[in-house]
Amino acid sequence: MRILQVIARVNQGGTARWLEELVIGLRSNGHEVFLAAGYVQSGETEDEIFKELNGHRIESLGRSISIFSDLKSLIEIRRYILKCRPDVINTHTAKAGFIGRLAAATIIKNKPAIVHTYHGHLLYGYFSKLKSNVFKFVEIVMARLSDVLIAAGDKVKADLLEAGIGNEDQYIVLRPGINDFNHLNKKVVREKLNISSDVTVVGWLGRMTKIKRPDKAIELAKRFPDVLFLLGGEGDLLDEIKAIAPSNVNFLGWTNPEIIWSASDVALLTSDNEAQPISLIEASYSSLPIVAQNVGSVSEVVEDGVSGILVSDYKESVAALEKLIANIELRLSLGSAGRAYAKIRFSPAQFILGHEAAYSRALRK
Questions:
Q1: Does 358 share its domain with 323?
Q2: Bridge partners, residue 203, by sequence
Q3: Does 306 score more than 80 pLDDT?
Q4: Cβ atoms of residues 230 and 201 within 8 Å
Q5: Containing domain of residue 60, as a range?
Q6: % of the chain residues with pLDDT over 70
Q7: What whole-number distance in Å separates Cα of residue 350 and Cα of residue 69?
Q8: Long-range CB contacts (< 8 A, 24+ apart) of 185-188?
Q9: Helix count and strand count (H, E) for the chain
Q10: pTM
C-alpha cells in the first residue's frame, strides 16, 4: 500500500513515538509510507524523527487556527496527495484531521481511503464548553468523510461515540506499539544526575502544558519533602512551574525514557485527560510501579492494584505515594507485573498488524 500520514506538527512527546513506530514498522513490512507535517509552535521542540523519516513540510500548517493559513494548508496537502497518490491517507490530531480529511475528500479521481486517528480527544479538559461543543460539531461532520476511525483506547472510543462522533462500525481500537529499550544502571544514572543513591525518586514525564497538570506534581512534591521529584519535559508552563517548585524537584528538560525511568523508583501521571500514555508504557518496561490519574484510557495501561495505583484526587495520590514509598517489596511486585503486562499488550507487532487491518478495511469501504 501507499500510505500518507498527515499531522499538524511532530513535537516531542508520545504522538511522535507513535508515528515513529508506525512509519518504520509499515515500511519494514513493504509499504510505501509518506509523512507530512507543519511546524511546531513557540515553546515546543520538533522531534528529530521528522527529518529521520524524510518528512515533507507543509509550510502553512500549524496548531493555531488561522483561516488564511488553514486554507493554504488545505491547498498544499491536496497538492501533495495528488503528487503521492496514496491508497490511504491517515490523519492525526484535530487540526490535521480536519484539513487533511477535507483535502482528501475533494479528490475526484482515485480518491484515497480516509482514516483518522484519535490519540485522545478535545471533548473535555482543553477548552471552554462553547469551544468544546464547536469541536464536537466539527468532528461529527468530519467523521462522515472518514472510512475508518482509529481510537487509542476503549475509553476514547466510548467518549467519542457518546458525543455522536462516528458510528460503531467505523471504529478500530489500537494499542500503542512500544519497543523495549536499554535499561541503564540506576546507580550510574543517579551519579550522572547528582542524585543520592538512598533517596526515593518519583518520575514525571510529559509536556509542561495545562492538560498534563504538572502543577499537581508540584503539590505532591511539597507534601513529600524527603522524596525527590524528577520532572522531564518542556512546554508553555515550564517557567511558571519552575517558579513554584520546591527544592526537592529537579527539572530534566526533554529527556530519554531510559534516563528518567532508570533513575526513578515510582512513575507519576497527573493529567486531566489521556488516551493510552506512552510514557507510562515506557515506565512499565522499566519495571516501575505507577501512580496515575484514572482518566481517559489510562486504566488500559495501568492495572489498578496489579501494576500500579489509579487515583482520582490529591488525597488518593498522597495515600498511594505513601504506600509505595514505605514498601519497597510492593514497588518491586507492581513493577514486575507491569513489565510483563506491557511486553504482551504493547508489542510493535500488534500495533502494525492493527494498522494494516484498519487500512484494508478502509480500502474495502
A1: no
A2: 230, 267
A3: yes
A4: yes
A5: 2-177+347-364
A6: 96
A7: 37
A8: 185/262, 186/262, 186/263
A9: 14, 13
A10: 0.86
